[in-house]
Amino acid sequence: MKKVFFFLILLIIAAGALLYFKPEYRNVLDRFSDKALPTAITHNKAYRWQDSHGQWQLSDSPPADGIKYEIVEYHKDTNVIPSDNLTGKK
Fold first, then answer.
1. What is the count of structural domains for the chain?
2. Residue 69 domain-assigned?
3. What's the mean pLDDT in 31-39?
């Protein structure tokens, strides 16, 4: 029984080392998890709308009643908050 347990631990360590040193295998694992897992786990939902000043707002909960909004779904690894450095806008 100890040999089986030792073998399993060694196998887990080897798999972790392989994923750490070979990032291309991590990408395959990520793509597989996106197909195998439900969308609710791999994707998030956000609500986007314009406020009274014309500024875009983004939240994980919908705005107050009467404000038109759209639902934006994005992958769990996506940065949804735009950076001023990237957009060039302030």
1. 2
2. yes
3. 67
